[in-house]
From TrEMBL:
Spans traversing the lipid bilayer: none
Protein name per UniProt: Serine O-acetyltransferase
GO cellular component: a single term: cytoplasm
Upper taxonomic lineage: Archaea, Methanobacteriati, Methanobacteriota, Stenosarchaea group, Methanomicrobia
Gene3D superfamilies: Hexapeptide repeat proteins
GO biological process: cysteine biosynthetic process from serine
SUPFAM superfamilies in alphabetical order: Trimeric LpxA-like enzymes
A GO MF term: serine O-acetyltransferase activity
Length: 144
């Protein structure tokens, strides 16, 4: 079933790569190496690739990405790098080095820090929390 769903939606994401709260903006090409690790509440857009260092055969040289990350459409994130919590990655950026300062915006080819805004306003967390508060019945687990 997983492989069928993956093909239908157009993404290649191995199980257990993302923490809870993954938000995929809409169906489209998304490729994530199975050894990458991405934390909670990640918002990811189409045409994104998260993979190993170019030219490497070591599958462990993959990104480790923190919590509350926004990844814009077309972003490419490669190599044995670390991305701190709360970072917003701009569309079509190429991220090939670590960014350890939390709550910043990065963009460009290659990516560089562009602001101190971070991802907070780009993630659907506030809307989700409001839904949970106003409609708790929608979030109760079924006993079936």
């Amino acid at each position: 079933m997983f492989h069928l769903l993956r093909t239908f939606l157009g993404f290649y994401i191995e199980p257990n790569v993302f923490g809870p709260g993954l938000s995929i903006s809409h169906p489209g090409t998304i490729i994530v190496n199975g050894n990458a690790r991405i934390g909670e509440n990640c918002r990811i857009h189409v045409c994104t690739v998260i993979g190993i260092k170019a030219g490497s055969e070591d599958e462990n040289l993959t990104p480790k990405i923190g919590n509350n990350i926004y990844i814009g459409a077309g972003a490419k994130i490669f190599g044995d790098i670390k991305i701190a919590d709360g970072i917003a990655i701009g569309a079509n950026s190429v991220v090939n080095k670590s960014f350890t300062e939390p709550n910043i915006g990065i963009a460009g080819v290659p990516a560089r820090k562009i602001n101190d805004k971070g991802s907070e306003s780009l993630l659907p967390n506030k809307e989700l929390e409001a839904l949970k508060e106003n409609y708790p019945e929608l979030f109760k687990k079924s006993k079936e």
